[in-house]
Structure formats: structure tokens, C-alpha cells
Amino acid sequence: MTLAHGGYNLYGRSIGILMLQTRFPRIPGDLGNATSFPFPVVHRVVESATPARVVTGGDANLLQPFIRAARELEQEGVLALTTNCGFLAMFQSELAAAVRVPVFTSSLLLVPMLRRMLSPTREIGILTVEAASLTDRHFRGAGWSREEIPVIIEGMDGRYFNQRLIGDQADFEIEQMEADLVDVACGMVERHPELGALVLECINMVPYAHAIQQAIGRPVWDIMVLLNAVQDSLHRRPYPGYMR
Predict the structure, then answer these.
(1) Rounded-to-integer distance, Cα 160 and Cα 178, Å
(2) pLDDT, tens digit, for every residue of 177-214?
(3) Statement: residue 11 has pLDDT above 90
(4) pLDDT of residue 239
(5) Where are the domains of the chain?
(6) Within 13 Å of residue 166, how many CA atoms lie on the same side as its CB?
(7) Region 33-44 average pLDDT
(8) Across-strand partners of 155?
(9) Reported CATH class of domain 107-222
(10) For the chain, the helix, strand and coil percentages under 3-state DSSP, each to the nearest 5
(11) Cβ neighbours of residue 210 closer than 8 Å, sequence gap 6 or more
(12) CA separation (Å) from 145 to 111, 148, 150, 151?
């Protein structure tokens, strides 16, 4: 006899996503677009958490609203939590301590693993929406520092990609966004031929990860890679032919 356990209103949504309050487009591949996932997720917008306040401002006053939203999603039955902005690594420790389910705020959490995976002669690159705002506060939140793990950081500061997202514009040209990212990524490889892996800090870069990887011929990591790994860890499937 199989016993089903209840306690929630809705089921089957394992991962909750804490969203910034934005109006710019969420195209397929973006965590804010439900078609990006082959499984159900649940989104929760954190009011007043604008790109300017989170990225450029690093506003510590947003911590409590994010904690409240995380606890609400936990109470609704999600089994893990992520965010749709890599800069929320600044709240990683506090969010993880506030709930009982796993929390992974940013692809920056992947950097220590990549450092162990790569030869010491290979470098790690980080492509970010705004290099001027990415600081040790975010790296420490993700569990490392630039003293421990030197990285190459390149930002989209001043480019179309940055202007449309940080400015929270209601539209953008997809081809221009992709061209911007590919151009900067290729420039990183040209200047640093020993680049062994590229981490996309910005969640909004995920739709263009394929184009970036094709252009630079290097492994490209992002929050979606981590999210899919977490989802798999929550729902392991038996291998064909395996008999218990």
C-alpha cells in the first residue's frame, strides 16, 4: 500500500524562483519565462526589488523582503529555491539560513567547483551585466574570494545589453543582445587564450549561452545548468534495466 502525504494546496513544483520586479522581456531561456523549463516551477516577485536596487545599489534593505518571499514559497511546498539575479549572491548565506530547503542564488556558486575541475594553468572568466557593481561582497556570499580564486571579470557596462536590463526597458532587440554578449565573450578569449571556462553571472544571459559557447569554443556555465542539476537531485530516476 502506498501512502500519499498532504499538507499543501499545490504539488509537483519543486523549485521556487525569487524574481526581481521588472518589465523587460523574458524570452525563452530566461528564468522568468515558464517555457524555459521541462518541469513545473513557481515564481514569486519580490516587490520593489528593481534591477537598479539589486545590481547597481546592492540595497541591503531588500534582504527581509527576499526572506519573506523565500519562506512563503517554502510553506507552499517547494523543495529548493533560486533567484533570477546573480547579484543576489550577496544574500546567499542569509537566505539559506532562513529556510530549511536548499538555496542557490547565483551561478557564482559554481566557481570553486570549476577551479577544482580545471588545470591551474587554465583561467575562469565571469561575464556579468555590470562589472562596476560586482564586488567581493558577492563573491564572499558565494563562498569564495578573488584572493583564493583569481578570476577574469568582464562586464556589459555601457553596452546595449546593460542599458536595456538595468534601465528596465519594455523591449529589446534579441539579435543585438546576442551580438553584444558574443562580442564581449570573444574579446575575453582573445585577450586570455588560457580561459578554460566561462561563467555567465547574469541570469538574462542564459538564452544566449548556446551562441556564446559556439563562438568561443569553451565550456559555458550558468544558473540554468545549476538549476537542472538541483532538479535532478530532487527527482532521481532509475536507470533502464536496474532491478531493486
Answers:
(1) 10
(2) 999 999 999 999 999 999 999 999 999 999 999 999 99
(3) no
(4) 86
(5) 15-106+227-234, 107-222
(6) 24
(7) 96
(8) 128
(9) alpha beta
(10) 45, 15, 40
(11) none
(12) 10, 5, 8, 9
pTM: 0.94
Q: Which CATH number applies to 15-106+227-234?
A: 3.40.50.1860
Residue 210 zone, left/alpha/beta (φ > 0; ψ -120 to 50; rest) = alpha
* 105 closest CA partner among 59, 148, 150, 142: 142
- CB neighbour list of residue 228: distance below 8 Å, 6 or more residues apart: none
Exposed e or buried b for every residue in 219-239, given b needs 16+ CB within 10 A?
A: ebbbbbbbbeebbeeeeeeee
Q: Do domains 15-106+227-234 and 107-222 have the same CATH topology?
A: yes
- Helix/strand/coil for 134: coil
DSSP annotation of 81: E
What is the distance between the alpha carbons of residues 110 and 143, in angstroms, rounded to a whole number? 10
Helix (H) or strand (E) holding 42: strand 41-45
What pLDDT shows up at residue 10? 65
- The per-residue pLDDT for 57 is 95
Q: Is residue 154 exposed (0-12), middle (13-18) or buried (19+ Cβ within 10 Å)?
A: middle
Specify whether the CB–CB gap between 42 and 34 falls below 8 A: no
pLDDT for 142 equals: 98
Q: Output the DSSP codes for 147-186.
A: TTS--EEEE-TTSHHHHHHHTT-S---HHHHHHHHHHHHH
